[in-house]
Amino acid sequence: MAMGAAVVALGAAPAFADGLVYSGDGAASVGWLSDGDRLHLCDEKADGHSAVGILYVDGVKYKTYWQTAGANTCSEYGNSWIAEGTPVKLTACVGESSTGEYGNCVSRPDHGKSRGKGNVIH
Question: What is the pTM of this model?
Fold first, then answer.
């Protein structure tokens, strides 16, 4: 796993100041939690595919995250190393983890900025 990344299985989605980004078919959602700069990724449908979340930091693709635990499951991935004020962008996709292929992606052009632990992004 990348530096500073952690996985936590969750039962319910927390509130997001900026809302969620959904894949084109609504089968995957990704959100940004400012408390510790965490990416929240959910598999929303029992469709046989994985949810994919892509994090861009300051305009550069940082990492592709996979949620492979099945429908109606979520995980969070910590990214607390991101400097305060750095722009982040999220993309939600659906994919096939066995091949690494994904598609049906939707991005938000500017999801917000890292504000450090405990602050809300706008």
Answer: 0.79
The span from the CA of 33 to the CA of 41, in Å, is 11
Is 95 contained in some domain?
Answer: yes
CA dist 19 to 15, 31, 33, 49, 100, Å? 8, 7, 10, 23, 27
Give the CA count within 13 Å in the CB-facing half-sphere of 91: 20
Find the CATH number of the domain harbouring 34. 2.60.40
Question: From the first residue on, what is the mean pLDDT of each consecutive set of 10 residues in the chain (122 residues)?
Answer: 38 57 96 83 97 94 96 92 86 97 88 52 29
The domain tally of the chain equals 1
